Amino acid sequence: MKRQGSLQRRLALGLAIGVTVMWLGGTLAAGLIVRHELDEAFDSALQEAAQRILPLAVVDILSREDSQATQRIAPVRSHEEYLTYVVRDRAGNILLRSHDANPAVFPPASEHGFTDTDTHRLYTETAVQGTIAVTVAEPLTHRRQAALEVSLALAVPLLVLIPASIAGVWWWTRLSLRPVRTFRDAIETRGSGDLTSVVAGSLPAEIEPIADAVNRLMERLRRALETERRFAANSAHELRTPIAAALAQAQRLLAEAQSPAMQDRARQIESSLRALARITEKLMQLVKAEGGGVLSETAHDLVPLVGLVAEEFKRTADGSRLRVTVPDSPVLSYLDPDAFAILLRNLIENAVKHGTASEPVTISLDDTGQLSVSNGGPAVPAETLLKLTRPFERGPSTADGTGLGLAIADAIASGAGTHLELLSPIPGRDDGFEVRMRLPGGKTKSRRA
Q: Going by C-beta distance under 8 Å and a sequence separation of 6 or more, which residues neighbour residue 426?
């Protein structure tokens, strides 16, 4: 299944892009507005300059002896002149001009009002019934430079504001979704055997119904599992009692029987009842393994359990074949101790029954949480290995058994979120059979002897 993207990443990325676009859009709009306002201000300056210069120019021209001569206004001191002007008569003769005015910039004839050339913005004002006209010119580069400087003044702060806004959006999104992450972590960190309700905390209103639905589902699962466990326990008790009673009667019949034929019949009944008891016990173990509850809420040290289970087998005739290797430090796992004991008993029992009697059965648990049980014997075909974890499936061995040991162990492993690894021949050998399993949550902590 394709993994969906993070909600936090989606929200943060979407908001960050939205904020960035809004900042850029706002800056662009502000730049256009400022450009328009600058044009109006510059146009007003042109108009104001023309209207102030024209009366002075008229007085000066009319008071001259030679009114047709061109006069150039000398500057008071050297400076850059952004606004230049010329004063002309009706025929277009220049009567007066500013010191930096270039006659080529001004059109031969200008009508009252604003006009534009490729390089300048001009404004013309007339007086004395149109016989005298003043034209003020401003370079368009001056306006563009002013507009550029204002735009840069608006844009440069964005270099700080946009990253700060993105960081703020990311931080606020992460802070807002912290209860959701806490709820997720509370579900992920607990073992599968823990079906108690998860504390919702201060979840957002949109997520709170999901949390309530998850808690209700977990409560239903918990009740269902408890029902299955009670049924398995009650069934085991109810079946053990009549089987034990029938076995006792068969043993009494064997003791009281006089004829050899009757004794043989009693022994067959006793053997059948013992086999039925073993199958019943294995079926109850299988039901418990498949019903869940193989993980506990807290981690347990499983090293002592390996010794206890091995000690049970050492009391039997085949117990001397066991070779146990465990670390000196504890091996902590969330696997339920009872479930681990059932799993290990079945693996050892399988190895003792089906392994070569002259070779040892090796039980090993290392400090990384890997459990292995191996025995000697002919190599098992690969196609047979794939079937051995199915209920009532048996290999080529003729030893007595129920065909449920590996199925029970595999069900416990699956319920714990791990799996059994069946190997035959044993790595590094030409024969033998080995079962490996990685304990869930297997961790070690140092322990001094």
A: 374, 432, 433, 434
Give the pLDDT of residue 76: 56
Q: Kindly report, residue by residue over 24-45, the tens digit of the pLDDT.
A: 888 888 888 888 888 888 888 8
Average pLDDT over residues 375-382: 85
Site of tokens 């399993």: 437
- How far is residue 5's CA from residue 309's CA, in Å, rounded to a whole number? 47
Is the model's pLDDT at 67 over the cut of 60? no
Tell me the C-alpha distance between 7 and 207, whole Å.
12
At residue 319, does pLDDT exceed 60?
A: yes
Contact 411, 377 (CB under 8 A): no
> Would residue 297 be called left, alpha or beta, if left means φ above 0 and alpha means ψ between -120 and 50 degrees?
alpha
Asked whether 200 and 212 are in contact (CB, 8 A), the reply is yes
Q: Which residues contact 371 (CB under 8 A, 6 or more apart)?
A: 344, 363, 364, 365, 436, 437, 438, 439
Distances (CA, A) of 93 to 69, 270, 327: 9, 140, 112
Q: At residue 149, does pLDDT exceed 80? A: yes
Q: What is the dihedral of CA 14, 18, 21, 22, to 10 degrees?
A: -170
**Paired tokens of 207:** 């997520």
Q: How far apart are CA 36 and CA 30, in angstroms?
A: 10
Mean pLDDT of the chain: 79
For residue 300, the cross-strand partners are: 333
For residue 365, list its beta bridge partners: 371
What is the reported pTM?
0.48
Torsion of CA 264, 268, 269, 270, to 10 degrees: 100
Closest CA to 58 of 122, 108, 125: 125
